[in-house]
Amino acid sequence: MKIRAAILKQSPVAPPFAETRPLAIEDVELDPPGPEELLVRIGATGLCHSDLSVINGDRPRQTPMILGHEAAGTVIGIGSAIRDFAIGDRVVMTFQPSCGHCLPCAEGRAALCIPGAEANGRGVMMAGGVRLHGARDHRDIHHHCGISGYADHAVVSRHSVVKVDAPDVPFAELALFGCAVQTGVGAVINTCRAQPGQSVAIVGLGGVGLAALLGAVAAGAIEIVAIDLSEQKLAIARELGATRVYNASGKDVIERVRADTRGGVDHAVEVAGAAPAFDLAYRITRRGGQTVSAGLAAPTAEFRIPAVNIVADERTVKGSYMGSCVPQRDIPRFINLYRAGKLPVDRLLTDVLSLDEINEGFDRLDRGEAIRQVVLFDPQEIALWRAKKDGMTKNDC
Ligand SMILES: NC(=O)c1ccc[n+]([C@@H]2O[C@H](COP(=O)([O-])OP(=O)(O)OC[C@H]3O[C@@H](n4cnc5c(N)ncnc54)[C@H](O)[C@@H]3O)[C@@H](O)[C@H]2O)c1
Ligand SMILES: [Zn+2]
Ligand SMILES: [Zn+2]
Fold first, then answer.
1. What is the CATH number of the domain that holds 70?
2. Host domain of residue 202
3. I want to staple 201 with a disulfide (CB 3.0 to 4.6 A). Which of 262, 268, 280, 394 is the partner?
4. Within this chain, do residues 29 and 168 fall inside the same structural domain, yes or no?
5. How many domains is the chain built from?
6. Beta-bridge partners for 338
């Protein structure tokens, strides 16, 4: 079938993207779903820094590619071997498909699935090959994380989706659970295993970092330290529950955090995707504490640890991919927390866009002016969101 999509023709492309236009909106040919695949009408897809990192070349991927890995939608076609999905099911996509059989999957570590990571690394589907082709030149187009959500429809593996029973939650919010919420909330709850009464620091306050902050609030952290280079992000962090905020470029920030938290925090989570932020997170962690890195730095970036310090202080340094989540367990769990008012992830949604506005959206993300923006495919829904936002702004004045 013919779909409308934003195609990254080549990378790296430098900003301003409103001028360089890395994402071209074109018709694309989408193959029907294979036996273990679903055809999904996309409701919403978020703009994440991991998409930006492909565009600007920080994390190179095969081109042409349709990006977009934080998505939600409705099942409208079902592969011949699938029995447990029905037309009309609402699904949240997860950016690391998990086979359920490899060693990490058997250990309950779906985020580390080996065939899933291999397929993502090659820009192909879990079952092999691509389902996307140029409408005019018929050239193969690569998939991003098995999703390619910057399109009005997608064919995805059954291992890339979680069925959700939340008719009251709009797609614009559901999409966030696929990446920002799984990654951020999961980093604090699953990777750190933060306990009530502990202290948690978040370094980097974008969509993922602020989701981590909400995770720290939900986990019952008593001291929540928020650090960024942007004063605007620090102000939002305060509103969302940070007890202390620091500008990373400030003087003596490490010493100040250590002094204010009586020797450092129990858990420091780096979510900036930059080695200096990882270093800062390590240095503000207390003796015996743990530092978790969830940001995805450029492949050439390195982080050095003083060897003796990790031993004498019994420090733990951990990576956190997709928040160490098991999507089938954690996405419904996090949605329930949201519906119960304990994880206000709607606060992360700063704007909605049409597909045609996506390059401008990436400029805003690049300049640090947005938290989460989502592309919506229904013009009426966009108009409704904008009216709602305008109303809120007027009431604020
Ligand atoms: N581990 C995973 O599974 C996973 C999943 C999604 C995204 N990511 C990565 O997480 C990172 C954050 O994603 P996002 O969409 O929230 O990005 P974002 O661009 O919205 O936010 C990044 C924030 O980090 C801040 N920052 C940059 N350098 C800093 C520094 N030295 N000290 C303090 N703050 C600094 C920026 O000001 C910005 O507010 C990216 O690197 C992304 O690729 C990882
Ligand atoms: Zn992401
Ligand atoms: Zn697996």
1. 3.90.180.10
2. 184-320
3. 268
4. yes
5. 2
6. none
Vertex 152, ends 155 and 69: CA angle to 5°?
A: 65
Domain match, 206 and 281 both: yes
Give the closest residue to 296 by CA, choosing from 167, 196, 377, 183. 183
How far is it, in rounded angstroms, from Cα 213 to Cα 231?
16
Half-sphere exposure of 388 (CA within 13 A, CB side): 10
φ, ψ for residue 304, nearest 5 deg: -110, 140
Q: What is the pLDDT of residues 84-133, one digit of tens each?
A: 999 999 999 999 999 999 999 999 999 999 999 999 999 999 999 999 99
d(CA 143, CA 346): 28
Take atom 44 of ligand 1 and give the residue whose Cα is closest.
295
What is the CATH classification number for the domain harbouring 273?
A: 3.40.50.720
Q: Is the CB of 271 under 6 A from ligand 1?
A: yes
Q: How far apart are CA 279 and CA 261, in angstroms?
A: 18
Q: What is the pTM of this model?
A: 0.97
**29, 50: one domain:** yes
Answer whether 327 contacts ligand 1 (Cβ < 6 A): no
